[in-house]
Amino acid sequence: MPIPLSVLDLCPVPAGKTPRDALHNSLALARHCETAGYQRYWVAEHHNMTGIASAATSVVMGFLAAGTDTIRIGSGGIMLPNHAPLQIAEQFGTLESLYPGRIDLGLGRAPGTDPATAAALRRGRSDGEDFPQMLDELRRLFAPAQPGQRLRATPGAGLAVPLWLLGSSTFSAQLAGQLGLPFAFAGQFSPDYLHAALATYRDHFQPSEQLAEPYAMLGINAYVAESREQAHFFASSHQQAFLNLVRGTPGQLPPPVEDMEALWQPHERQHVMSTLAGTLIGDETAVSEQLASLQERTHVNELIVNSSIYDQAARRDSFSRLMRVNRQL
Predict the structure, then answer these.
(1) Which GO terms describe its cellular component (predicted)?
(2) pLDDT tens digits, 217-247
(3) Are 270 and 197 in contact (CB under 8 A)?
């Protein structure tokens, strides 16, 4: 059976372009994926990275929601320890007020950046160990305000903004299960913990007002093209970007290359390829087999797809082909 598909967008800045270009690329892709039948379009919070334009995540969400009509717009995610819960409740309450029924709030506890930038963001606040307490505060701010309540999120209180927990290990999986929240696993860069996290989430799940049964979404990378060779060519931009991150020299999204072997050492290749192992890649026939196998192995409820392709027409085409493959399952 087809599985609901969504989009994870880091708003990559292609080499030689600007954040403005990246944000308008994202809007064009959101409109394309809305027409193609994708369910959600999430953007991620990262800081101090010249190749990612979505640092002000809620602002980017407003831009995307204003330029689309029906697709759900969300955060994949907001790194809650970087913010005061009241700020996030007000920001997402505002988004929900402007675009009712279309806003998702995905939450993570990692900083989404390097240690020095995290220190600048958090200003001596916790390094994420009090995430459960911050989450509880945020949930109370979204609850209907009570008589005499002194602290209110306006807008925010009483609005039904769906909360999701994001994670790359079992910590958030267990917490999401215990709270009865949907869980999104970052398989696009942490494939090794996938099965343990899904099992932990399902084993600990308790029904809640938001969710009666477990709902797990899996992040993957996908590169679908007319040929296998072309798909691997497009994927080389993402591989180069991750290689530069490993080397401590992150930058803009590089153009694709024909031969990655000339760019990395064997140990670097192993690191990059193992980290990006959660990837569907090839022509439509190959990706159809990979997608069916992934569903059989994980039984997730939804996939959220990252495709860091340098050429924007090829990027949109990859999402079209993936949706076509999915509908034919």
Answers:
(1) cytosol
(2) 999 999 999 999 999 999 999 999 999 999 9
(3) no
What are 106-160's pLDDT values in tens digits?
Answer: 999 987 778 888 888 887 666 678 999 999 999 999 999 999 899 999 999 999 9
Q: Report the pLDDT value the prediction gives residue 143, as an integer from 0 to 100.
A: 97
* Domains by residue range for the chain, with CATH: 5-327 (3.20.20.30)
Q: Which residues face 108 on adjacent strands?
A: 79
Per-position b or e across 202-239, b if 16+ CB within 10 A of its CB: eebbeeeeebeebbbbbbbbbbbbeeeebbbbbbbbbb
DSSP E strands, the chain: 5-9, 40-43, 72-79, 103-108, 163-167, 183-185, 216-224, 279-282, 302-306
Sequence-distant (≥ 6) Cβ neighbours of residue 55 within 8 angstroms: 45, 46, 47, 49
Residue the block writes with tokens 């026939």: 285
Buried/exposed code over 1-31 (b: 16+ C-beta within 10 A; e: otherwise): eebebbbbbbbbbbeebebeebbbbbbebbb
How is residue 141 written in tokens?
A: 């701010």
Question: pLDDT tens digits, residue range 6-19?
Answer: 999 999 999 999 99
User: At which residue do the structure tokens 């806003």 appear?
Assistant: 103
Q: Are 37 and 326 in contact (CB under 8 A)?
A: no
Which two structure tokens, joined as six digits, stand for 74? Answer: 């969300």
Number of other CB atoms surrounding residue 169 within 10 Å: 16
Query: What kind and span of H or E run contains 92?
Result: helix 85-98
Give the dihedral of Cα atoms 66, 186, 167, 76; nearest 10 deg: -10
Q: Is the dihedral of CA 280, 284, 289, 295 positive or negative?
A: positive
